[in-house]
Amino acid sequence: MVKQKNTPWHYIGLALVASVIFAFPTTGFLQQDTVGEATPTTSEDIQRAIEQKQEQQRLLQQQAEEYQRVIAEKQKVAASLQNELELLDAQVSKSELDLQTLDFSIEEKRLEILGAQKSIEETQGDIDQQQTYLADLVRTMYRYDQKDTLELFVVHSSFSEIVQDIRATTSLEYKVRSALDTVQAKKANLEREKADRELRMRELESLQGEVEAATQALEAQQEYKTTILTDTREDEQQYNQLLEQSKQEQLRADSDIRLLQEQAQAKLGNSPGGTNTDGSTFTGNRNVQLSWPVSPLKGISAYFHDPSYPYRRYFEHPAIDIPTPQGTAISAPDDGYVARAKNAGLGYSYILIVHSNSISTVFGHVSQINVAEDTFVKKGQIIGRSGGMPGTPGAGRLTTGPHLHFEVRLNGIPVNPLDYLP
Q1: 8 Å CB contact between 366 and 350
Q2: Span 20-48, mean pLDDT?
Q3: CA distance 351 to 318
Q4: Residues 6+ apart with CB under 8 A from 37
């Protein structure tokens, strides 16, 4: 038999085979993850369990949508103690359903992680089998490789047997190449499966954070209802007095905002100048075109001077309300100067930013403030987190649910924000 030690593929193939074999140890490869108590043991059982959780979520979402319809109707009714209590009851019920839905989502995600783990283990098992197969092929190739031409003629009685032996060697090389390709493909698939599992783990962590936030919001709603019942003693007149106090709070905020914008413009000029948080120079935007501070994908729940605003008998609605989940990041709609970042505890918290061309923006019911007064911000910078859930930090009394209260002011006077948004 003719040796093929000088064949380039021969050396490259053996090197690749060795690298594949040593790159995949047969033990200690996987690190087991804790995914909670999961009863399914096969991929089919896991898939059925996931589908069951999805159906449970769908039913809960249908119930939540019905409560959302009731909430929307109540939000349009003129403010009264009875209406606010009914609104709170509907919001609490919806929050409880949302929390149950999140629980099912977590269980579904854990099942997905379990399925991903099983898939990883199966792929690793396939790789282990291919490693053993490749090792056998390498040993066989080595034995063929040790035969010299004289040995071939001594061992075989005819030239046809020698040809057959050479063909066997060629077939062996093809099998090695094929097995190597298979292992390489399975390796790539294993990496994808591991990345998928890691993604689902991060999603699980995110869902667990949402559950914590939703639980806190539900508790705040329940406490807020208790506070209203205590403060009003279930008396409409007492409730109206509380609303009057809230009205005065809003009027003071309005007066402060006008004065602050005037002072900021006097200090900075019509086109504010200064130093941004990253050290660059702030020049303002002479042609004011604001961006949305939060996504408007869920529409607008209350418009500028909305005739259906429930507190209209106390004052006109000077903003647009953008529905968004509690704690949504708020982005600065343009470069600007932070004239006020008021943290009012459980009262009405807001951020005021003065822009160029006598324009300012106000962000109300904020649950978190990420900027300091007398500093400059750039367009798109995160300035805080949205709020609006009754009884939560920054919401104040005159709020109907999670949303961002967004005002645009010209020389301190509210104007329609939609005239400045794309």
Answers
A1: yes
A2: 55
A3: 15
A4: none
Residues 85, 25: Cα–Cα separation, whole Å: 64
| 219 close to 86: Cβ distance less than 8 angstroms | no
Instruction: Tokens for 337, please give them.
Output: 């100067």
For tokens 């409409």, the residue is 236
pLDDT digits (tens, 9 = 90+) for 170-224: 666 777 777 778 878 888 888 888 888 899 898 888 888 778 777 877 777 777 7
**For 386, left (φ over 0), alpha (ψ -120 to 50), or beta?**
beta
Tens-place pLDDT, residues 109-124: 989 898 888 888 888 8
